[in-house]
Amino acid sequence: MNFEHTDDRRMLADTLVRALRDGYPIETRNAGAYGEAGYGPAIWQQLSELGIVSALFDEAAGGFGGSGFDIMVVFEALGRALVVEPFLGALMAGRALAKAGGHDETLAGIVSGETIAAFAHEDAATPVTATKSGDGWTLSGTKAVVPQAGAASVLVVTVEQDGDPLVLLVPAETAGVSVRSFNVVEGGAAGDVTFENATLGADARVGSEGQGQAIVDAAVGAGLLALSAEAVGAMEFVKEATLGYLRDRKQFGVPIGKFQALQHRMATVLLEIEQAHSAVINAASAFDGDDVKARERALAAAKYTIGRTGALVAEETIQLHGGIGMTWEYAVSHYAKRLVMIDHQLGDEDYHLQRYIALG
Predict the structure, then answer these.
(1) How far apart are CA 331 and CA 85, in angstroms?
(2) CA-to-CA distance for 13 and 257, rounded, in angstroms?
(3) Quick check: pTM over 0.85?
(4) What are 150-173's pLDDT values in tens digits?
């Protein structure tokens, strides 16, 4: 099995890493993440013009990439810079539309970066229900903590029902749709999306009857791979920052990295990060395969591994830095919190461990 990246993929990764290194310092990132919008619109436009969103989709969907390794390369670079712009929503909503077919104009807007989309999947205490209304549906209920819901002009909404999920494309300005926006810890903006008798036509349906679960699986699978790769990128950043700190910080006239106890702890961190990276590579490889069970097991294994490893890396790097590691001004504190938060998106490590076992 060949894990070498193609020349185009290496060029994409180099371009993205360079753009983020030069134009996305932690101060810029935090201004967007904790600002009113929850992201930087100018940064989003700049990265979209570089073709970063297009790299997440294949040619049939209007992109130029779309493989598991393309998703991995992009989100690993985004994780290294702790990017909060709405790439995850574009990926998941776009993958749902691409899997279903149809809604070509909306998909084209998502792939180009002109349309900001959100994937509304997790129900709140009052789950979303869809009642038949003529040829369409009337929605009621709430979707919880939808990333960048306030900025999105379109929502891809999943509705659980007997037999097969219903997937709907909902313009954000639809009557009866409201968003309560807030900032998630180190995740940028999110929102609870409430539907109060929001009426949709038959053309809102994404896919055909009986296709709903396959559409949801395509979107969620891409999201799991993306989050896992993002976590690996974040771990790589804190690894390098911590090694640098251990080399530079001195006690008793010598670098603290000379102390054997700290060397042992750092060695454990390095080994665990390599294991997490391997799990994500395995998931990226299985992502495009025909074996659905192998794909789902690999994705569950990756998400479980980055959840467990992310918590360890966050704790150890903060401990190795001491008090400075928790200060707002120091980038490592933001990365540590983001690693913990990634575990809770699209199912935590306990959920995916059980899922992996069930798929056995």
Answers:
(1) 18
(2) 31
(3) yes
(4) 999 999 999 998 889 999 999 999
